[in-house]
Prior knowledge:
The strands form 4 sheets. The chain has a 7-stranded mixed β-sheet, with no helix packed on it. Strands 2-3-4-11-6-9-12 form a 7-stranded antiparallel β-sheet, with no helix packed on it.
Amino acid sequence: MIQVYTADSAHHFDHGWLKGSHIFSFGDFYDPNNTRFGPMRVCNDDTIAPGRGFGAHPHSDMEIVSIVLSGRLRHEDNLGNVAETTFGGIQRMSAGTGAIHTEHNPSEDEPVRLLQLWFMPRTRGTAPSYTTGRFDPVNLEGKLLPVVAGVGSEEVVDIAQDMTIYLGRMSAGQEMVFNQEEGRRIFIYLIEGQLQLSSESALHPGDSARIEEISELKLAAPEGAFLMLIDLP
């Protein structure tokens, strides 16, 4: 089953210093039929103005991933971590028993665009932690590149959940097949371009898809595509 959520169905907002969209219920936007997909709880496409950001705020028992698409994002937390990330960078905070952090755009003249993703952890009440990772954007071309996974490596950021986040750029006319074990879920968010799913559903920028009961998913990019695909339990 493929369920498509168009960009128009997302909650769009513009606070001046912050603009973007919420794919799931978040903050002031609440839809009782759209609160999660498996362990996935949040998918926000945010753009933060230069010199602005989120002040200190707490989290607990949540895996929080920030993927920078353009610009620079600075993170600071009460665990003593400080990091600045650009395109090709990944930030992951396991909030566990509790963590306080800030996120802001340190640039004086360039906005930062990021995808912020929240997932419920495999186990609650663990010690909080934070890490960063980098991938070479060249390696996105023509394939799905794992950037976050339940088992990390030098090139893949670890996360306390049985899942994998892939990013990929498909060239115009390219086709590929994504295979996963039966009984799992797939979430797709289209960042740029056009994407066809198993010859059934067409996605445009800002559209997302929630897929169940399909272990072999065919992807086609008539005009090229930049996408995020998440394999979920």
